[in-house]
């Protein structure tokens, strides 16, 4: 004890103990708060890459999958449609895909890694509506020059079988090609193109 009759050693011990208990309590209380800030498994899954089996897709057929809450159209193109894409004609606004709407490995006339498969977001670049697939042989009123592709019913924009927009329509650019890579000849991973094959 000191001259004033106060035990400072005991006071320091009690202050230290209270500080430690308070610190542990604050850390324990912050765990649920910090845990609530991390994304849930469902949220993580929405943005996760999606593996797709293409082995059952016949020429002319398509699949629609979901990635990041958005539709992704996968179309297996026919040999005839590939020939048409090589000569798009004057109606296509960006025939060489010069605008940055696709990864570098899809900057070609087919806008794809493998010419027979088109993988693109199913969203019009005008206002985000979902275009409808209209084959050349389907009943339509898109004109005699229509060779098949995608029609946005909201505002009438037309896209060819590579997702390239036609001129004089509201959509400002080609449909977006998402990142993707092939795991095998018939399995593709949409949403991840790390070390993508070209």
What can you see in these coordinates?
The protein is an alpha+beta fold. It folds into two domains: 1-38; 41-198, 3-layer Sandwich (Rieske Iron-sulfur Protein), CATH 2.102.10. The chain contains three helices and nine strands; from the N terminus they run H-H-E-E-E-H-E-E-E-E-E-E. The strands form three sheets. The chain has a three-stranded antiparallel β-sheet with strand order 1-9-8, with no helix packed on it. The longest helix has 30 residues, at 8-37. The model has no long low-confidence stretch (mean pLDDT 85).
**Portion of residues in helices?**
10-25%
Assembly state of the chains shown? single chain
- Supply the number of helical segments: 3
What share of residues are in beta strands?
A: 15-25%
Structural class: alpha+beta
* CATH class term of the largest domain: Mainly Beta
CATH 4th-level superfamily of the largest domain: Rieske [2Fe-2S] iron-sulphur domain
Rg: 29 Å
End-to-end distance, in Å? 82 Å
């Amino acid at each position: 004890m000191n001259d004033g009759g106060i035990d400072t050693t005991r006071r320091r011990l009690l202050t230290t103990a209270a500080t430690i208990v308070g610190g542990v309590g604050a850390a324990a209380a912050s765990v649920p708060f910090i845990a609530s800030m991390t994304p849930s498994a469902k949220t993580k899954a929405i943005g996760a890459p999606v593996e797709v089996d293409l082995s059952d897709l016949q020429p002319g057929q398509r699949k629609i999958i979901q990635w990041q809450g958005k539709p992704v159209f996968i179309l297996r193109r026919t040999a005839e449609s590939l020939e048409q894409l090589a000569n798009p004609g004057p109606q296509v606004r960006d025939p060489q895909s010069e605008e940055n709407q696709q990864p570098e490995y899809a900057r070609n006339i087919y806008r794809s890694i493998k010419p027979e498969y088109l993988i693109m977001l199913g969203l019009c670049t005008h206002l985000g509506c979902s275009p409808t697939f209209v084959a050349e042989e389907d009943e339509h009123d898109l004109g005699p020059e229509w060779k098949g592709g995608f029609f946005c019913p909201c505002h009438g924009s037309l896209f060819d079988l590579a997702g390239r927009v036609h001129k004089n329509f509201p959509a400002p650019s080609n449909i977006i090609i998402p990142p993707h890579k092939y795991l095998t000849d018939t399995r593709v991973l949409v949403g991840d193109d790390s070390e993508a094959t070209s």
